Each structure stands twice: as C-alpha cells, then as structure tokens.
Amino acid sequence: MSAPRLVVATGNAHKLGEFRQLLPGLPLASLADFPPMPEVIEDAPDFAGNAVLKARAAHAHTGEPCLADDSGIEVAALDWAPGVRSARYVEGSDRDRLEALLAATADATDRRARFTAVIAVAGLPDDAPLPPGAWRQDGCVCTRGVVEGELTRAPRGADGFGYDPIFALPDGRTTAELATDEKHAVSHRGRAARAIEPLLRQIFG
Hints:
- It is a single chain.
- The protein has 205 residues and is an alpha+beta fold.
- The protein has a single domain (6-204), classed as Alpha-Beta Complex (Maf protein).
- It has helices at residues 13-22, 47-62, 94-104, 180-186, 188-204; strands at 6-8, 28-30, 66-75, 81-82, 112-122, 135-137, 140-151, 167-168.
- Strands 1, 2, 3, 4, 5, 6, 7 and 8 form an 8-stranded mixed sheet that branches.
- β6 (135-137) and β7 (140-151) form a beta hairpin.
- The chain is globular and about 55 Å long.
C-alpha cells in the first residue's frame, strides 16, 4: 500500500513549488502526475466556492486527497472588486490587468486593498479535527488568509507576480519587493496554508 499523499490541484510546476515551500516536508503531488483533467469552471461567487469546486473535481479525478486554492485582490474604491475575477479582470497578461486596475483607481483617494486566499482540501476523513479558524464546506476543509494593504500609484519591485507590484504592505514595500521567504511569511496564501498545516501534518506526516 502506497504512503498517503496530498495532490495539489494544479499542473503548474511553479504553483506546486510554492506549496512545497509553504508546506515543507509534506508528500505533495500535482495533477501532472495523472491523466489530463477537464477544466473546472470557476463560477462560484466567492473564493471559498471556487476553491471547493477545484478541490472536489480534482479529488473525483484522482481518487486521492486534493488541495486547491483560489485567491485575488479586493479594492475598496471598487466596492472590493475584482475579487474572484482578479485573474480575469481584463484579457491579456498580468501586466495588462495590473495597469487596468491602476487606471480604474487613478482618481481614488481611498487606496485600501487586500489580498485574500482560501484553501480547500477534499478527501480528508470526515472526523478530522478542525484547526482554529477552519470550516467545512461541501465535503472540504477550508481555511482563509487575508493580508491588508493599499494600492500604489505605480508598479514597484521585480519579484512576485500578478498584482504584487502594486500592492503595498504597511511597511511601504510592495509584495514584489519582498524576498520569497518574507513574502511567504506575510502573504494571504501563506496564512491560509499555515492555518491548515497542523491538520495536514497530522494526516500526512
């Protein structure tokens, strides 16, 4: 009998590598280890719903416990949009979306923004004890991570991806100006991962 492992619901090696940094020592695999999986339509109204959709679909496809996440940026001046549409805010590249968000908020004096991530894990035992702050949703265990900040007026920093160059932390640095270990320590995804980590280590060692 093979040792238990946790499948990260992605075929992207970069994403798998990020979770290996966030959850060091856990036996993580990815969808690249399985036959191709149909695309999941992420049409839920919130991050938790989309994470659950992806985790459940990957669990059904692989037959193994699966972790999925959904995340995005929320901006006060846009009534906390783009939210779940962050990756689809406009067509094109990350840079196109970043510049579109800056253009949409060019006249805004309220620059408050936040990054939110929800992790959902499907296929865990029904009696698995919930860590603090975790909840069950449609057969998954979920955790949330949020980091508060504000939008800059122009991009800064060469690291990170997505909206990192225009999201400033309280210390003034954007998340694209942080070293990788610094970013993981404060990021929304890092916070969600640390919230569920005790349960995962109990199950997967």
